[in-house]
């Protein structure tokens, strides 16, 4: 299997998993409801977010905010698609970078779908410890975060690797 095919399969898998989980939450968990899964640590919730991560741009005018978020998500998805389409070894570096970019692409397209079709992003995973609550997130957000982490890890490992030659 080529690196390109693997990357697109990962991105498609993230998108499908994101859509399926959001559909399940939309159908089975009433909006703004919360179900404790691991007491003191993890809840399944149902929230709708018209802003970006961590409610970034929440105070912006809805029309401008939606245009900006759809535009930036589309640009990111196109850029990642082009980079992954090129010869993987030359264009994006290591396998870890390819997988990271594929995860980001799948997550970006998952949240982009929500911004275009229903107009809001469904978030449903909530982590907390005591009074500290991490903002609710979803599979697409997780994939984007893990993908960015893989790319950063690759950068750190490449800096530490002994130089050959």
The residue-averaged pLDDT reads 89
- Spans where pLDDT lies below 50 across 5 or more residues: none
- What structural class results from the helix and strand content? alpha+beta
Using the CA coordinates, give the radius of gyration: 18 Å
Most strands sheet = 4 strands, antiparallel
Q: Counting H and I runs of at least 4 residues, what is the number of helices? A: 5
Q: Give the percentage of residues in beta strands.
A: 5-15%
Number of domains: 1
Kindly state the percentage of residues in helix: 55-70%
User: N-to-C terminal Cα separation, in Å?
Assistant: 30 Å
Q: Judging from the principal axes of the Cα atoms, what is the shape?
A: globular
What order do the strands of the largest sheet run in, or round the barrel if closed? 1-2-3-4
Total strands: the figure is 4
Succession of helices and strands: HEEHHHEEH
Note down, in words, how this protein is organized.
This protein is of the alpha+beta class. Helices cover 59% and strands 15% of the residues. The protein has helices spanning 3-28, 62-85, 88-91, 95-116, 139-160; strands at 34-38, 42-49, 121-129, 132-133. It is globular and about 55 Å long. It starts with a helix and ends in a 5-residue tail after the last helix.
Q: Could you give a short description of this structure?
A:
The protein is α+β, with helices and mostly antiparallel strands and 165 residues long. It has helices at 3-28, 62-85, 88-91, 95-116, 139-160; strands spanning 34-38, 42-49, 121-129, 132-133. The two termini are 30 Å apart.
């Amino acid at each position: 299997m080529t690196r390109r095919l693997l990357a697109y399969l990962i991105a498609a898998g993230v998108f499908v998993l994101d859509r399926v989980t959001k559909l399940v939450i939309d159908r089975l968990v009433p909006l703004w409801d919360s179900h404790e899964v691991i007491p003191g640590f993890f809840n399944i919730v149902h929230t709708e977010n018209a802003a970006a991560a961590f409610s970034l741009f929440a105070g912006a005018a809805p029309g401008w905010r939606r245009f900006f978020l759809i535009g930036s998500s589309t640009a990111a998805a196109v850029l990642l698609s082009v980079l992954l389409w090129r010869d993987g070894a030359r264009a994006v570096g290591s396998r870890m970078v390819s997988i990271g970019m594929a995860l980001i692409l799948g997550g970006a397209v998952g949240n982009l779908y929500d911004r275009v079709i229903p107009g809001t992003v469904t978030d449903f995973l909530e982590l907390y410890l005591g009074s500290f609550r991490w903002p609710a997130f979803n599979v697409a957000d997780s994939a984007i975060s893990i993908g960015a982490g893989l790319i950063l890890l690759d950068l750190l490992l490449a800096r530490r690797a002994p130089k050959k030659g």
